[in-house]
Amino acid sequence: MITLSINGVQRSIDLPPDTPLLWALRDGLGLTGTKYGCGIALCGACTVHVDGQATLACVTPISELAGKNIQTIEAMAEDATGQKVQAAWLSLGVPQCGYCQPGQVMAATALLKHNAQPADADIDKAMSRNICRCGTYTRIRAAIKQAAGELENAP
Amino acid sequence: MKALVENSGADSDSFSIINVSRRRFLKSLALGGFVLAGGFPPVALAEDEPKKYGADAMPHGWVDNPLVFVAIAEDGSVSIVCHRSEMGQGIRTSLPLVVADELEANWLHVKVVQAPGDEVRFGNQDTDGSRSMRHFFMPMRRVGAAARLMLETAAAAQWRVPLTEVRAELHHVLHPASGKRLSYGELAKAAAKLPVPDRESLKLKQPEDFRYIGKGEQLSVDGRDIVSGRAQYGIDTRLPDMLHAVVARPPVMGGKVLHYDAAEALKVPDVIKVVEIKSSPLPADFNPLGGVAVIAKHTWAAIQGRKALKIDWDNGPHAAYDSAAYRTEMEAAARQPGKVVRNQGDVDAALNSAAQRLAAEYYAPHLAQAPMEPPAAAVRIVNGHCEVWACTQAPQLTRERVAKWLDLPEDKVTVNVTLLGGGFGRKSKPDYVIEAALLSQAMHGQAVKVTWTREDDLRHAYFHTVSLERLEAGLDSRGNPLAWLHRTVAPSIGATFAPDSKHQIPPELGMGVVNVPFAIANLRVENPAAEAHTRIGWFRSVSNIPRAFAIQSFVAELASAAGRDHKDYLLDLIGPARRIDPREISDSWNQGESPEIYPVDTGRLRRVIEAATDAAGWGRDVPKGHGLGLAAHYSFVTYVAVVAEVAVDEEGKLGIPRVDIAVDCGPQVNPERIRSQLEGACIMGVSLASLGEIGFKDGAVLQDNFHAYQLTRIDDAPREIRVHLLPGSDYDKPLGGIGEPGLPPIAPALCNAIFAATGRRIRQLPIKDQLRKD
Ligand code: FES
Ligand code: FES
């Protein structure tokens, strides 16, 4: 039994220690907002935050996470930066099928927490781990800039 | 009625009326007479039956009964059923918007309910061919208008005033003379007791009165759920006591398990059971591939268990399939005469008399759809009733096939349609859902979810065909084309359903090869034979991809051979504005649409070319290493032209600063989602042109995840995509498709731009490192 701090709540998980966080979240805890896309760190669909860092849950075994603060997409509506990102995503109509978008929102939120005014090159660097098969990249870029503007104006 | 309310979760039956003959509103089964063949609808018509087109020609056609699609609760909330699958195109927003507009409903009080698979009740549900809006715009308008008329009739009766004195406005019915008003919630019960009005008595709105249609102001109904992680895709399905399965499938089409050893797999913690799924004989059809399934308490254990399986395969008759060798075969076929599928004038004589002859061959590889959500489905069987949750583009086909495999009547199978994390044609094929049904059956009805890993998705897609397009032209002394000879070689989708199918079927020929709208006197299209060695299926825009690539590249090659501007040359080739009957150019398919209503309109094609080139500043000076490239293509009854600007740096790295896309799809229901579809098609087109390739060796797929099958990421995507919608406010004009037509012109526009920038002509996709300088 491993205990993890997920979205501010201590959760016990009865899964083998080598289980990737992705499957622990999805199958163990029913937090299905974190998506499977490739399983081997190639697509970003499973992006979560571990101690504030964008982390790929599909290659992070739960045994490595004791004592760390894990945040998933389900907590972003309560997160000041996450809210701005979600609002920008909606107002620009970023999602198509939406399947990659929890990962995109998590990656963008982590980016903006570390770099409030990212340049295009910063966006390329931070977001190129995340694949969108529907092709929403131009709107993702615009939405990150819009969210950055909102954060700058926020009191 | 009742069943709908329960199945769909609509929360009110107060609008339900029982004593109305449904016959008046349902296209009867007799109208069908059609069977699904070759994955494409149509086909066998009784001799005396007039030919049917559009939604009419689809299995179960269309339904416009308001009782099936609308429920109004006494609190005024309106539930509208969406019967088409949502995979990113926005149909769950756009179709209900059409109903809400005619209904004069306040969109804020509308909720959308997803229909389960039931074509008899809802009309055709197979979401492909870019036809949801094309086929259901008018039926959904009638649904809304009929419900509005019933509410108005109820109010007039209550006030004892003539119907002509009342009108519906934003969720209320008003009687202006007296100033009385009643809300839809207050009227719902009384309206529900009225008969559904005849179609002929409906008054549709005038377009200037539309509130929502054509505006594109409504957020996607699923947007908030998506960005907060609440949206439910097939892979997210969770049921009580559900087990998780992954399947080891035969690596080669037509292969099967010789024997297997599950001992090590069963030692993996949390693995519960290992089950063999029998392979079916070819043709592949929609059958599950067979193999060995590992069933576990969670997905990770199932994946680990599968790794521990030892399986010996019989690889069957296609074990020698090798993409490199097959390409050589296709080239040889393309250099010999083949089955003539369109012929006008005397091509051979014209070629012989030409001042200049040019020939080029264009190769495009297999592709996998690779939706970000791989195929997944969950099934349980309770008291002889099978319940399915699946990300499926084909709810009805899925229902029919699951019933057949489980030997149940169709009414004992419920197919709940989840959101799809992308489809692109892959999820039109229910093989993965049948797997889940068989495994649930093997577990005595316990819920089982089958998840395809990315490796499974890439190895076992229904692949986009591989193709060799050979074009030859003869030019006169001024560079004008006298003759055009096109040989198209590609294994056919038909082979997935009929093993001896070596020639392309009419829908494939009608995707940009026989229906090329060029004004050339001598023109012949041939289709040499090609055998399929893997499951060929439809991929967003299907055969239009290689045809647009070849034809639009070749026209640019001819223009430069003639020393002419590409745009002028293309317009001359298309010739004057005219409406071409598709039958006159050997296109018997015409996207399944009426040739009278949907001719090939070269005027519209010309206009998108003018619009895209104007917007892009065609002919403008560009920085060193940059180039502009043009391509235009007509598909799914929509006209698209693209101008791409590329930047190729010293090392040969390709950048795409800007793409201009002009579109004429006729009337536009949700322009905002149209733009988003075209942006997405552009990026998918860039991805397949620059990186996309599935190859085979020893019969098996070489690429198994995104390192090998690469997709374009944000850093290599076009920096700016400008979509130019040609005015689409004439709602009497027929609608065009939107999901697919944006894709085909992207690859040739890019390759033509690369030629302008570098002088390098790309005739083989993907571009990959062909530009690299070492
Ligand atoms: S699922 Fe983790 S990166 Fe793809
Ligand atoms: S929105 Fe569909 S994969 Fe990104």
Automatic annotation (TrEMBL), chain A:
<keyword id="KW-0001">2Fe-2S</keyword>
<keyword id="KW-0479">Metal-binding</keyword>
<keyword id="KW-0411">Iron-sulfur</keyword>
<protein>
    <submittedName>
        <fullName>(2Fe-2S)-binding protein</fullName>
    </submittedName>
</protein>
<keyword id="KW-0560">Oxidoreductase</keyword>
<dbReference type="InterPro" id="IPR036884">
    <property type="entry name" value="2Fe-2S-bd_dom_sf"/>
</dbReference>
<keyword id="KW-0408">Iron</keyword>
<dbReference type="InterPro" id="IPR012675">
    <property type="entry name" value="Beta-grasp_dom_sf"/>
</dbReference>
<dbReference type="InterPro" id="IPR001041">
    <property type="entry name" value="2Fe-2S_ferredoxin-type"/>
</dbReference>
<feature type="domain" description="2Fe-2S ferredoxin-type">
    <location>
        <begin position="1"/>
        <end position="76"/>
    </location>
</feature>
<dbReference type="InterPro" id="IPR002888">
    <property type="entry name" value="2Fe-2S-bd"/>
</dbReference>
<dbReference type="InterPro" id="IPR006058">
    <property type="entry name" value="2Fe2S_fd_BS"/>
</dbReference>
<dbReference type="Pfam" id="PF01799">
    <property type="entry name" value="Fer2_2"/>
</dbReference>
<dbReference type="InterPro" id="IPR036010">
    <property type="entry name" value="2Fe-2S_ferredoxin-like_sf"/>
</dbReference>
<dbReference type="InterPro" id="IPR051452">
    <property type="entry name" value="Diverse_Oxidoreductases"/>
</dbReference>
<dbReference type="Pfam" id="PF00111">
    <property type="entry name" value="Fer2"/>
</dbReference>
From TrEMBL, chain B:
<dbReference type="InterPro" id="IPR052516">
    <property type="entry name" value="N-heterocyclic_Hydroxylase"/>
</dbReference>
<feature type="domain" description="Aldehyde oxidase/xanthine dehydrogenase a/b hammerhead">
    <location>
        <begin position="228"/>
        <end position="317"/>
    </location>
</feature>
<dbReference type="InterPro" id="IPR012368">
    <property type="entry name" value="OxRdtase_Mopterin-bd_su_IorB"/>
</dbReference>
<dbReference type="InterPro" id="IPR046867">
    <property type="entry name" value="AldOxase/xan_DH_MoCoBD2"/>
</dbReference>
<protein>
    <submittedName>
        <fullName>Xanthine dehydrogenase family protein molybdopterin-binding subunit</fullName>
    </submittedName>
</protein>
<dbReference type="InterPro" id="IPR037165">
    <property type="entry name" value="AldOxase/xan_DH_Mopterin-bd_sf"/>
</dbReference>
<dbReference type="Pfam" id="PF02738">
    <property type="entry name" value="MoCoBD_1"/>
</dbReference>
<dbReference type="InterPro" id="IPR000674">
    <property type="entry name" value="Ald_Oxase/Xan_DH_a/b"/>
</dbReference>
<dbReference type="Pfam" id="PF20256">
    <property type="entry name" value="MoCoBD_2"/>
</dbReference>
<dbReference type="InterPro" id="IPR006311">
    <property type="entry name" value="TAT_signal"/>
</dbReference>
<dbReference type="InterPro" id="IPR008274">
    <property type="entry name" value="AldOxase/xan_DH_MoCoBD1"/>
</dbReference>
